[in-house]
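A note from the maintainers: we've had questions about how concatenated examples are separated. There is no special marker in the raw files; a new sequence line simply starts the next protein. For clarity in this README we add a label.
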Amino acid sequence: YLYLTHESKDAIAKNKHKYSKADIRLLNNFDIDRYITLDVEDKEDLFNEICDIIDDHDLANMRELKNFVKYHGAEYGLPSMKVIRSVMKMSSGIIRLTFDAVYQERRYGRADIDKDTGEVLNNK
């Protein structure tokens, strides 16, 4: 799978054209997720990407993340939610805290936080 889409480490090193996952056509209920394997480094990178997406796009729960992946996953090179869920299991506490932070900011607002830097502003 990574070989065919040019997402393998070898293809990336050779600077090959990367094919969009959205362009892959699956036939006869073929389960592509069974063939997506991630090493420890890839899992960590995907986990960090997921946390950044949650924060950058103000996603407050799994449902919002699922919809984001459904509509924008290909733009970010994200695999299916099945793969994402398996990666998220390794640090579900961190994901929960990240979702909770977005929820808290939505619910209570944080006018005392700089939107660009995340710093707490001094309101003296």
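[label: protein 2]
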Amino acid sequence: MKTVVVHAPKDLRIEQAEIPPVGPHDVKVRLRAGGICGSDLHYYQHGGFGTIRLREPLILGHEVAGEIVETGAEVTRVTVGDRVAVNPSRACGRCRFCLAGQPQHCLDMRFYGSAMRMPHVQGAFREVLVCEEAQALPVPPDLPFEHAAFAEPLAVCLHATRQAGQVAGARVLVTGMGPIGMLAMLAARHAGAREVVVTDVVDPPLALARRLGADLGLNTRSDPQALDRFGTDKGHFDVVFEASGAGAALAGALHAARPGATIVQLGLGGEIPLPVNVLVAKEIALRGTFRFHEEFAWAVEIIAARRIDVTPLLTEVLKLDDAVAAFELAGDRGRSMKVQLAL
């Protein structure tokens, strides 16, 4: 089978790999669609992010969907021909975090397309994937594979929404309108936010966000004081989703958040300064959010029921053989939101 393998920054290759055997509790999925995530871009553009670096060739990809083509002898939940979204998380189920209902913090996690451990966990940008039955969640037969492949990033944002606490009726700020920021905005609306303001440093995603339901879109590069109006009387927003990973965005969010607000940090950008005095004086709760667990199944249900329409977020689908062009397009925020590979 063909796979998409990164060897070093800007060194992306299409390579052949053997298809693993199907165990009794496994399914073989003919993958059809795979979304390029921000972490995939970091590996391609920079060889990693923060302290996580490539140490060996890595098959990228973890936002995928496809069709069951073979099942193991003990598989009962899915059958050949089913369309499925594939959950890229493979927690051990035995460590103290798994047993405590926090498998996203599993001590032996194997997450597709990750260089966090050595050997690296190979990813899902491949023509055929053999995975555990529990990872393959059926979707309706009329749901496009491209839509099903949005389940993973939407699950990330649904988990972030839970981390935020009360979102219904809240005034919400979302900073950084890449795919995760956009889905966070849609998830906040789905959760009942009464007002959503978004910021970014380029105009095209702000225009898309306004079309999809944002009340206001602010370009903080062309207008660095754009959020100042929300900082009067100690702040305006009840909930902030910081999806850029930029220190300036977090500082602006702290200024615009009201006392007692919750800021959920979604974006990863390495070490960033934290204005602790503001955090303390305004009694703001700063919360991290990491991956997801049961939210993956929720994301599948929400997308299948069209309660969140992911169609406007899909910029283009390119063939697997055109992976380099796809990654270059995905890295151009002025031209793309979500780019997928047709696997």
